[in-house]
Structures are given as C-alpha cells and as structure tokens.
Amino acid sequence: MPKSTRVEQLTNQALACLKANKSIQAIASLSEVIGADPNRAQAYLNRGNLFVRMGQFNAGLTDYNRVIALEPGHFEAWYNRGSARVVAGEYDAAIADLTEAIKLKPDLARAYCNRGLGLLRKGDQDKARDDFEKGLEIKIDLPLCYYGRGEVKLSEGRYQEAIDDLTIGINLKPAAEALAHRATAYERLGENSQALRDYRNALSMRPRLETAEAGIARLTQGTED
Questions:
Q1: Quick one: which of 144, 141, 166, 167 has its CA closest to 155?
Q2: Does pTM surpass 0.85?
C-alpha cells in the first residue's frame, strides 16, 4: 500500500475516533500518522488537543510547539497553546501566545476572552475588562467573556452588575466557578437563599470546590441543613 494511502487511512481512522469520543484510540491513530508523516501539522494539533483535554498539558504543549515550528502562521495552534497555558497557570506565556493568535486573526473573539482571563489572574483588571468587552463586541454569545467581566465587576463591588453578566454566561454554559462567583455576589447583597442555591449547584458540578464549600458553611452555620 502506498505510504500516502496508509496515512490517509490512519487520518480517517483518527477522525472517526474523535467523533466517537474515543480519545485514547484517536491518540494512537494520530501517533501513527505522525510516525508516517512527521510534518503533518494538523495531526500534531489534534493530538495536542486530546492531550490537553485529558489533562496531559506537557504533552499537549509539546505537540502545539511542533505545529508552530512547522507552520508559524497557524493561529489555532497559538490560540490552543495559549489557552492551555491559562489553565496551567502560565499566565505570561499564555498572554504572549494569545496576543500572537490575535495578530494572526484579529476577529478571533475567544482569544480575547482567554487572554482576558490570563490578565485577570495576573491582577490586571483594566486590560482584562477591555479584552472581555472586545471579545463580546466580536461575538455576543461567549460565556467565558461574561464570566470574566462578571468576576471583574464582583471584585469592584458592583454586585448586581456582576450577577447580570454571570447569569448570561451561566445561561449560555453553566460552570461551577461562575455559579460560585454569582453566589458570592448574592451573598454580598444579603440575598442568602439565592447564594446558597448557587453554592450548592456549583458544588454539585464540581465536588470539593473550596469557595462553594466555604460559602455553604457560612450560610448554614447554626441552622439545620
């Protein structure tokens, strides 16, 4: 069988595994593709995405590095590497990667959201807010931008505005941390029943989420749960 035909067969097999959410099998097939054709950037990108999804950040970053080495203009690789670095807490490197992704594709709304999150985690709230608002200007239905902007408003004591942003984000895509942040805003406003509901919902989504556990403990202290 010609090498090119074998590579295409393996690629199709990997794509079928991806669609079926069979990550381990997909990684195995993509590794075979890479073994047969070490310069196939898309195979590295797909495998890197799977590694990151499985929590294997170093392996994922290595694959993204290879994509960028092969195709420096591959905006998705810069974006994916930057987003993975935000999750890993490598904020400076994440911001640099996401800035490059934005240079390559200025209308990549989700890159602004993720860069904003990196800036927020570094404590640069003004620049973070600018990025969240730019992302929403490009694409109105990005939950991460609403989560981030809501978190900024929460830190500024603008509790009702924070609730409004977080509610939009949660309605688009529920997330434990967003629920916990909204609960905090409700608690600061003295709306304890709503706060307790959100803390409990956050904890059901992410067991042992410390902010949710602490909030429930505060609000149920001295009462029967």
A1: 166
A2: yes
